[in-house]
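wait is this the right file?? whatever heres the structure
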């Protein structure tokens, strides 16, 4: 059985929906949210036939462990880790040379964002 994790915030959930919607198990939306972002998100979820439900803010706060969730939390399956050989084989399939960013023990999401922006600029 596959393991799952919770992700939260619009950017995280929209990113998974655009790249790998099959990994999304379910989405929880904060009760009372009916703004444009929520409407767009629910339309996307409906188009992918992904279940979503309404939850109170307390439950979302508990799942996100106090992090800012913006009123949306999603349970997603964790993709299995590739072997080193299959990883390098998949990189060799790209048309352009690849750059690999290796990070260890990132704890602050802002640090991860800074690393990704720096890698993108490189």
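ok assuming it is, sequence goes like this
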């Amino acid at each position: 059985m596959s393991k799952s994790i919770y992700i939260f915030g619009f950017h995280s959930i929209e990113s998974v929906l655009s790249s790998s919607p099959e990994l999304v198990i379910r989405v929880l939306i904060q009760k009372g949210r009916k703004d444009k972002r929520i409407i767009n998100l629910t339309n996307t979820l409906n188009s992918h036939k992904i279940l979503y439900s309404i939850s109170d803010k307390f439950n979302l706060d508990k799942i996100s462990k106090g992090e800012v969730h913006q009123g949306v939390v999603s349970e997603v399956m964790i993709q299995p880790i590739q072997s080193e050989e299959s990883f390098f084989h998949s990189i060799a399939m790209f048309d352009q040379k690849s750059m690999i960013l290796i990070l260890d023990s990132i704890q602050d999401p802002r640090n991860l964002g800074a690393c990704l922006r720096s890698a993108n600029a490189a």
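The longest strand covers residues 24-30. so i think its the right one actually
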